[in-house]
Write a sequence for this structure.
């Protein structure tokens, strides 16, 4: 057996993560089976009809740039990468009349612990991203785009490159798309192991062939982006949502979510559930329903805590989670954030100190080192949590953790500092007793970590 | 020296970017070098620098900033096991421990026969498929139970050809 044959046995098929038939009213995940990722199948599902429509190549009059942006605004689509910024509004910030080169960038540097949705979108429905980007490019008068893909999912990068070739060959990318006057060149690029490159300006630096160290904002990418040119950056899932919105209208998209939280969202559920995976559900679906889709908490265990929006989001206890719905506003009101939609579930066998120890190590490891509060503070946080976990904690450490976290927040160029501090504060807020127990008894209240 | 075939791969990457922005291809070029030679040597950095019109130090900054570039020669197969929290909750750390026992080495080390280097990694973006590991940067293995890990190691020991 050669090594390729050997490794192919261990490759994920998407069967467990995305083709479980447990989505609710899916749009991006609808009718996917793993084999039908290619262009012909995408077109058979209604793909590229939205692009055809806006270009007036379906017998209609076409849409103006303003109409496309208005439709996206009406849809209530908000950025699916983590910040939740209204997409239509972001597109309207682009100086469309800028005389020089402008760029469109897709942020597929999906490295937020807990998140694996963009991988499955690009692996199993790559043309939805390509079509969404082409529509965005049309709306903002952009003719060059890049999709920057997480280096660890190299096979997905290669899949996306293959999809790009298909789209070029079919005339959906390139010069005079579908016989119109619209030109759009799209390329894929990859990272190589740096969490920070998911931050949009670090991503731009990386695309320029440099260390991925975030830029100070302002200026924002809309005025000074890739190569110093006006640039719009959206997440993979955001782009993938766009074709559906153009085909069905902004109002229809908004209607399947809830006000100010339009559409469906793909949640990546990991941790202590029976069926971890990606679940596409309407915004505003109760968490309890989502948990049920994922098979519930591991057999024989009780829900203890959930990190509802990727590792940077503050943890919430079970009692709070079971009462909230999965949308930006509801989770924010509960004191956390929807973030990238990564739901990390922990059951009653889990030690919160140990969980925080691993996360704090991660942020310390991935700090780019540019800002002193983050570079020094994340290491400090990790060392304190590490010694508490290992039975060497001091009573003063708990207040010190809070103080160091507070001194990082708001004092750094990018959000990584905040992302390191928020989990610490969330854990102390909801599970302070566990930390106190560790310090006082030099051991864990939960007992053996299973 | 880099071969003409490698240069052709470089140029495919360079062509994605504006003519005056060849540096943008540095990430891909270094990944190509690593795939072909197993690591990024100072000589390779020089070659990439001259191909892209960059200062060698600017290339070195990239090599040293990103986690996945090998700054020294490693085993024939580099295994990166994700140990971040979502994976840890589903056996990521156990998979690492199992590999350490099976291979008789610690994370960060290479087997004495030079076949396998074992490393931890941060989130690979495959949290639902845990435990996951990456073989030589480009091939992900998912749902790696102890049985599958044994099968993988046995297979790598007897596999023909290279990745």
């Amino acid at each position: 057996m050669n090594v390729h044959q050997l490794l192919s046995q261990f490759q994920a098929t998407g069967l467990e993560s995305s083709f479980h038939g447990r989505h609710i009213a899916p749009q991006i995940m609808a009718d996917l089976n793993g084999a039908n990722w290619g262009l012909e199948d995408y077109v058979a599902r209604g793909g590229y009809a939205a692009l055809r429509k806006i270009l007036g190549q379906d017998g209609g009059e076409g849409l103006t740039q303003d109409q496309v942006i208005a439709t996206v605004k009406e849809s209530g689509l908000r950025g699916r990468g983590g910040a939740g910024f209204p997409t239509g509004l972001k597109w309207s910030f682009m100086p469309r009349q800028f005389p020089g080169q402008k760029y469109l960038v897709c942020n597929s540097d999906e490295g937020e612990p807990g998140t694996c949705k963009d991988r499955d979108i690009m692996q199993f429905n790559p043309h939805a991203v390509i079509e969404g980007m082409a529509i965005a490019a049309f709306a903002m008068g952009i003719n060059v785009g890049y999709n920057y893909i997480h280096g660890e999912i190299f096979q997905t990068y290669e899949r996306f490159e293959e999809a790009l070739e298909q789209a070029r060959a079919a005339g959906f990318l390139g010069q005079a798309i579908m016989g119109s006057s619209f030109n759009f060149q799209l390329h894929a690029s990859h990272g190589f192991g740096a969490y920070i490159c998911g931050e949009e300006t670090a991503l731009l630096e990386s695309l320029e062939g440099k260390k991925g160290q975030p830029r100070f904002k302002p200026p924002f990418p809309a005025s000074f982006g890739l190569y110093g040119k006006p640039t719009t950056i959206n997440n993979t899932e955001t782009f993938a949502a766009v074709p559906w919105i153009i085909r069905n209208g902004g109002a229809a998209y908004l209607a399947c979510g809830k006000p100010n939280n339009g559409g469906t969202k793909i949640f990546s559920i990991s941790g202590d559930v029976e069926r971890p995976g990606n679940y596409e559900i309407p915004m505003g679906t109760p968490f309890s329903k989502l948990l049920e889709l994922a098979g519930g908490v591991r057999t024989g265990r009780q829900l203890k805590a959930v990190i509802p929006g990727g590792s940077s989001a503050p943890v919430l206890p079970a009692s709070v989670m079971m009462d909230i719905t999965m949308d930006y506003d509801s989770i924010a009101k509960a004191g956390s954030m929807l973030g990238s939609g990564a739901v990390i579930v922990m059951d009653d066998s889990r030690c919160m100190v140990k969980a925080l120890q691993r996360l704090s190590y991660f942020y310390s490891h991935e700090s780019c080192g540019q800002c002193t509060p983050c570079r020094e503070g994340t290491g400090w946080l990790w060392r304190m949590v590490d010694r508490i976990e290992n039975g060497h904690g001091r009573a003063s450490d708990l207040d010190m953790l809070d103080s160091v976290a507070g001194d990082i927040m708001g004092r750094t160029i990018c959000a990584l500092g905040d992302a390191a501090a928020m989990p610490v504060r969330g854990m102390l807020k909801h599970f302070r007793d566990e930390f106190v127990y560790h310090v006082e008894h030099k051991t864990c209240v939960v007992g053996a970590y299973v | 020296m880099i071969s003409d075939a490698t240069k052709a791969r470089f140029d495919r990457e360079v062509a994605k970017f504006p003519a005056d922005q060849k540096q943008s291809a540095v990430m891909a070029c270094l990944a190509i070098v690593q795939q072909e030679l197993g690591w990024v040597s100072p000589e390779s950095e020089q070659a990439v620098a001259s191909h892209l019109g960059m200062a060698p130090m600017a290339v070195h900054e990239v090599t040293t900033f990103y986690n996945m570039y090998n700054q020294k020669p490693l085993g024939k197969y580099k295994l990166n096991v994700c140990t971040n929290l979502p994976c840890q909750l589903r056996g990521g750390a156990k998979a690492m421990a199992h590999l350490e026992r099976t291979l008789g080495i610690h994370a960060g080390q290479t087997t004495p026969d030079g076949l396998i280097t074992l490393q931890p990694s941060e989130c690979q973006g495959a949290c639902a498929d845990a435990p996951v590991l990456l073989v030589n940067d480009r091939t992900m293995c998912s749902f790696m139970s102890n049985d599958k890990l044994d099968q993988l190691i046995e297979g790598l020991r007897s596999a023909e050809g290279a990745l």
Q: What stands out?
A: The mean pLDDT of chain B is 96. Residues 41 and 71 of chain B are 7 Å apart (CA to CA). Chain B touches chain A through 61 residues (CB under 8 Å). Helices of chain B lie at 4-14, 26-37, 42-52, 56-65, 85-88, 92-103, 146-158.
